Amino acid sequence: MTAVLVIEDDDRIRLALLLALEEEGYTVRGAATAEEGLRSQRVEPADNVLVDLMLPGIDGFECIRQLRRDDDVPIVVISARDDTHDIVAALEAGADDYVVKPVAVKELSARLRALRRRGRAAVAAVQVFGDLEISADAGEVRLGGQLLSLTRTEFRLLCELADHAGKVLSRQQLLQRVWGYQTGDERLVDVHVGRLRQKIETEPANPRHLVTLRGLGYKLQR
Amino acid sequence: MTAVLVIEDDDRIRLALLLALEEEGYTVRGAATAEEGLRSQRVEPADNVLVDLMLPGIDGFECIRQLRRDDDVPIVVISARDDTHDIVAALEAGADDYVVKPVAVKELSARLRALRRRGRAAVAAVQVFGDLEISADAGEVRLGGQLLSLTRTEFRLLCELADHAGKVLSRQQLLQRVWGYQTGDERLVDVHVGRLRQKIETEPANPRHLVTLRGLGYKLQR
DNA sequence: GGGCGTATGACAGTTGGGTGACAAAAGTGT
DNA sequence: ACACTTTTGTCACCCAACTGTCATACGCCC
Question: The Response regulatory domain covers which part of the protein (chains A, B) (predicted)?
């Protein structure tokens, strides 16, 4: 069962949303202010949070920031008008998606589903690949619980690959994203991948996570 | 003949893209600003539009919105880094797909084709042909859930066929699209189709997916 | 059955990628 | 500023995997 928290000050809209979401099969709870919403989320975290941007007291942006500080819950913004500035700012504050009022519940529901499916995994605090754990924020990587010491380049490379878990990244793409080179010797990537493998693979000769796709590039998989 | 409009402010990138697309058989036109691009599209609409997100003056998002207002043309976003926010925002603004720089022209071309065929529906990550699953992003192909290991050529060949599911492709066309050869020995295609069949068909002798049309070419079917 | 188009196995040349060595560069502490 | 350590990028070499060609075998269609 999926729980949704709706933070919205307008009673009518909040109630309408809660009823509609309940109808869709969600467990719902509501909050009329950011403070109330944050408290609610701290006490009993929901799986999705909907936040109106225009709130009395602590506003929506700050609310998003605080929610995001504690938690990786998917946040969907409800915005009054579709003002690009507001939306960009909200996404920058850490929101994952937004809908514009008046809210079509079917659409909202679809987005919640999509968000949950897509998951915030890509930007989650700790990414897990079997016995490999990467916590980008803390700058730590563990293999079977054992803390590894990676160089900066290795770490960036790993993060880049982890951010695209399961997708192939070409040497070209890695050169650009990790090194910022527009052009350069692709063999550089090979060497660093090799070094990274020595550290993150229990058996570097046949890697289980950081795999090569001949002619395509590299991929990090679970 | 398919016309593509590229709206990108960086001269080098724009020119490179235009040349590459021309090479692929598209009619191309370029624009360095959103204004110029919008005007061009109004005067002489292209069949696909590529838009960079970072543009001087009117930015990419606004440009997409305005393009979408007048027209149903498929829009592909070119984004510098793959920042989830940017991409979500671009898709919200009305883009249909996106590619991340540095752009692999083959990939781009495939997406354009796919977009045109599917007509503005998002490009599926995984294509399914009965018990055969192709995930281009992950560089993975599965037969009955079992992961196959294809060579680069086999993979490209398969993708090319999959992008034209159900349509016959002549050896000539395949030579050109997969190998980039303007001319060459068509037997080469046979050999690789054969090798591919050994891997993707449960019964290579009478193929169910990758079928030969005597005198015409090959076809991948569901 | 004959002829043409297609499948396939073998082979040699080529390519792509892993790796260790090394020098330059960056970082660190005194 | 200096000496020392760590990290980074380049290079050369090697091997496994892949590619393209060819010869031969097969099978469809008239």
Answer: 3-116
